[in-house]
Amino acid sequence: MAKIENYNFNGKKAIVRVDFNVPLDENGNITDDTRIRGALPTLKKILADGGALILMSHMGKPKGKVNEKLSLAQIRDAVAKALGTDVKFAPDCAKAQEAAAELKPGEVLLLENLRFYPEEEGKPVGIDKNDPAYEDAKKAMKESQKEFAKTLASYADVYVNDAFGTAHRRHASTAVIADYFDKQDKMLGYLMEKEVKAVDNILKDIQRPFTAIMGGSKVSTKIGIIENLMDKVDNLILCGGMTFTFAKANGGEIGNSIVENDKLDLARHIIDLAKEKGVNLVLATDCVAADDFSNDANTQVVPVGKIPEGWEGLDAGPDSIIAFREAILPAKTILWNGPAGVFEFDNFAKGSKAIADAIVEATDNGAFSLVGGGDSVACVNKFGLADSVSYVSTGGGALLEAIEGKTLPGVAAVAE
Ligand code: AMP
């Protein structure tokens, strides 16, 4: 596979798939520019070499239609500021031939939201999956997706994929486009390289003990990872909302706590699997229960299986926090995905904060710690600890699929 570090972009036009799907407020102002900053090392290397940049990204879910609220024109100035240079804008990503042809070394062109075209995602629109004509529509869409990808490829000499957030999708700009470049002219960007390396650290080059902490609301969305991790981890902490599915599966009373009643068998299966594999499964034993789903609710600490009627568990309790710390502190490899409580409410963020603190301590003692997947990233950011762990992944679904052991199409496409 070509390596960005060794590539000389001098005089070349590089089309770079970035993840500029940044959150905007109602006035179109960026509320968190992490993703733009994440792409800078790649973009700066290309410009410093004397290359020209064509930037492409999606924003939100316009479902194949133009939607001004999701226009990348809104972030043009922020990108220009971050790069320290002017950014030209192509208002139609599939009709940017001229703008691309005119680009000179050192210049930057930002294409409009790729997902204004259904071809980007390659799913037929306006036809139900059960419609007999669906399969034909799907085939036709795959063909037009190729054409769309070919058009994007025609703008540039070299393709760089630096959008880890969409690496688990086989979209026109993330994977299909790579077919139109020679092997030596397609590669991962620095951010993607770092992400892939971080996943390798926890799936391949494991230093022991390995502690994984899986939290969040539901066990159903994490089951693929939990199963894959069972063969790898020494300690597995399961916390957050899924605690109560386990507590109920164990015959407990969980009041109004969040629960997946159709996953009780799955919870029992996970407990058995941990025993079979010799994994130390750490489940919360107590919780902070609230009489309302609000920051100002009344609270009491109760065992997870003895929650009174009308109360719901919203955070890990003190005994659970001690057990979590014990499993985290000696670890040499740590993965954290999903909060231990409703951390968005300050009064129910203690469990998540305790986990974050223990991870930071273990990291100071030489552990490799990877935090990733949406809410846990928001968590470490909320606590101001993002710089105190080894790596914070920018990928949500992509990270989770990589940890499940799946090959990411966005990575595979440039390696082929
Ligand atoms: P996920 O997207 O599955 O990682 O879940 C993250 C969400 O789970 C966060 O918004 C948390 O507020 C929520 N969560 C964590 N613990 C609980 C709980 N005990 N009850 C309800 N929601 C929770």
Provide an overview of this structure.
This protein is of the alpha/beta class and 416 residues long. The chain has 14 helices and 18 strands. Helix 8 crosses helix 9 and helix 10 runs parallel beside helix 11. The protein is globular and about 70 Å long. The model has no long low-confidence stretch (mean pLDDT 96). The structure holds adenosine monophosphate.
Task: List its traits.
416 residues, alpha/beta, Rossmann fold, 2 domains, binds adenosine monophosphate
Mean pLDDT value: 96
The CATH architecture designation of the largest domain is 3-Layer(aba) Sandwich
CATH class of the largest domain: Alpha Beta
Percentage beta strand: 15-25%
For the record, the count of structural domains works out to 2
Radius of gyration: 23 Å
Structural class by helix and strand composition? alpha/beta
The H-level CATH homologous superfamily of the largest domain, spelled out, is Phosphoglycerate kinase, N-terminal domain
Ions, cofactors, ligands: which are bound?
adenosine monophosphate
Strand order of the largest sheet: 1-7-6-2-3-5-4
Per-chain topology:
Blueprint: E1 2-3, E2 13-17, H1 34-49, E3 52-56, H2 76-83, E4 88-90, H3 97-102, E5 108-111, H4 118-121, H5 134-154, E6 158-161, E7 186-188, H6 190-203, E8 210-214, H7 223-230, E9 235-238, H8 243-249, E10 253-254, H9 264-277, E11 280-283, E12 286-290, E13 299-303, E14 306-307, E15 312-316, H10 318-328, E16 333-337, H11 350-364, E17 368-371, H12 375-382, E18 391-392, H13 397-403, H14 409-415
Parallel strand pairs: 1-7, 2-3, 2-6, 3-5, 4-5, 6-7, 8-9, 8-16, 9-11, 10-14, 16-17, 17-18
Antiparallel strand pairs: 12-13, 12-15
Helix pairs in contact: 1-2, 8-9, 10-11
Bound molecules: adenosine monophosphate.
Adenosine monophosphate (AMP) is lined by residues 216-218, 221, 240-241, 258, 313-314, 338-339, 341-342, 344, 374-375.
